[in-house]
Amino acid sequence: MIEDFLKFQNVNKVFDDKKEKIFVLNNLDLVLPSNKLISLTGPSGSGKSTLIHLLSLLDTPNSGSYSLSSSKNLFEMNDNEKSNYRKKNISTIFQNFNLISDLTAVENVMLPNLYLKNNKEESVKLAQSLLIKLGLENRSNHTPKELSGGEQQRVAVARTLINQPKLILADEPTGSLDAKNTEAIIDMLVNIKNSNTLIIFATHNKSLVNKSDLELTISNGTVNFN
To answer: Where are the domains of the chain?
Structure first.
């Protein structure tokens, strides 16, 4: 486990609303280790989604630095550099799955690996091995409309894992699932964390929070450990 795997230093995110400045994040310092499943909680509008977007390099703060397993400030990269970095190092699990409807499960899973210009045959093997690991070996040639909600979410998780990202992020990843599938997804996240990976998910679900290794609560522009 790497203790200072992820670092936020003096990160500020400010929105202007009718001449009033709203500090969503206020001089945030945050150091997180690898090999952890971390829940992010807080009331609606507290900034959970903003923090997830910053961590995924889909948004830029007003000031501050961000490093992930290196000393490089990721916020200083240009848009093209951020896009390339995300493809290799950061993956997101979406609440609505974001699967491509006319592709099969295995094709959806292998897609991020092909974006890295990897060999198609190897990408297929990687995708199939992940689907087997997640209990979908008999569903690999089915399109999303032929899969249940829980199966679609497992395909989405497999797609997230294929490039072996350093950071996995999820914003209410189980919001559209029933209790059984919610439990299954969180159990999967518990099982896939490793010494080179950090998983952070935003949620309002207390039972999911109880499965995490650490709970972060965001409120009034600051983040606290619970």
So the answer is: 6-225
Do 67 and 38 contact (CB within 8 A), yes or no?
no
Please write the tens of the pLDDT for every residue from 54-97.
999 999 999 999 999 888 999 999 999 999 999 999 998 877 78
pTM exceeding the 0.90 threshold for the entire prediction: no
Beta bridge mates, 171: 202
Listed residue (147, 131, 171, 156) closest to 51, CA to CA? 171
Q: Is 201 helix (H, G, I), strand (E, B) or coil?
A: strand
Kind of pairing between the strands at 214-219 and 36-41: parallel
Instruction: Mention every residue, 6+ apart, whose C-beta is less than 8 A from residue 172.
Output: 95, 202, 203, 204
Span 151-194, pLDDT tens digits: 998 899 899 989 989 999 988 766 666 777 777 777 777 777 76
CA–CA separation, 27 and 163 (whole Å): 32
Domain spanning 6-225, CATH architecture = 3-Layer(aba) Sandwich (3.40)
In the chain, the DSSP E strands lie at: 6-17, 20-32, 36-41, 63-68, 90-93, 167-171, 198-202, 214-219, 222-225
Integer angstrom CA distances of residue 19 from 16, 22, 62, 219: 6, 10, 17, 22
* Cα–Cα distance list, 219 to 31, 32, 47, 180 (Å): 17, 18, 8, 30
Tokens coding 166:
């350093």
